[in-house]
Amino acid sequence: MSAGRTDHDRYRTFRPLWGRVAAWVVGGIAVGGSLFVGMTARGPIGAHPANRASFVAFAILSAWLLWRVAGVHATPSPEGLVVRNVIYSRRLAWPEIVAVRFSGNDPWVKLDLADGGTLAVMGIQRSDGERGMTEARRLLELVRAHGEAPEPPTGRTL
Q1: Is the pLDDT confidence value at 99 over 90?
Q2: Cβ 16 vs Cβ 69: under 8 Å
Q3: Per-residue pLDDT tens over the stretch 105-148
Q4: Nearest 5°: CA angle at 146, between 144 and 150?
Q5: First-to-final CA distance of the chain
Q6: Sequence-separated (6 or more) residues with CB below 8 Å from residue 135
Q7: What angle do CA 112, 115, 120 make, to 5 degrees?
Q8: What is the mean pLDDT of the chain?
Q9: At what angle do helices 18-40 and 49-70 cross, to 10 degrees?
């Protein structure tokens, strides 16, 4: 195995499997069903254009939300980790990550940060079983390999 291939595997994006599958299946049902009802409904539900528009609006909102849920991931690089969760994304340098936690009750990995906060990494999920545990170990290895801030040079004054 070449060094380039090893780096590619090491810095492969963390993505959940079953969370994405569930989001796409629910999305197909919710969006498809809402659009179908909104476009074909007759009688009291379909008589008023505002009712039809509300079904279409629900389908659009559902599609956006489930697209965000399906798109959660964490992208490692030699410089740090970019975490994209449902609502926001955050870029972290490796030294900002103090610990990686994935206890039996957590639905996804949590990072303890140097500023005292925590950050969920929804790209590594418990629902993925052993695959999720393997990905959590890979993230822990990256944090251990890159996590220490370099020591400043001593004996120099600015």
Answers
A1: yes
A2: no
A3: 889 999 999 999 999 999 999 988 999 999 999 999 999 999 76
A4: 115
A5: 46
A6: 14, 124, 128
A7: 35
A8: 85
A9: 170
Dump the DSSP string for the chain.
Answer: --HHHHHHHHTPPB--SHHHHHHHHHHHHHHHHHHHHHHH--HHHHHSHHHHHHHHHHHHHHHHHHHHHHT-EEEE-SSEEEEE-SS-EEEEEGGGEEEEE--TT-SEEEEEETTS-EEEEEEEEGGGTHHHHHHHHHHHHHHHHH-SPPPPPSS---
* 81 Cβ contact list (under 8 Å, min separation 6): 74, 75, 91, 92, 94, 97, 139, 142
Q: Average pLDDT, stretch 13-18?
A: 91
CA 13/CA 156 separation, integer angstroms? 40
pTM, entire model: 0.77
Question: Residue 127 class from Cβ within 10 Å (0-12 exposed, 13-18 middle, 19+ buried)?
Answer: middle
Number of C-beta neighbours around residue 142 at 10 A: 21
**pLDDT in the model for residue 7:** 67
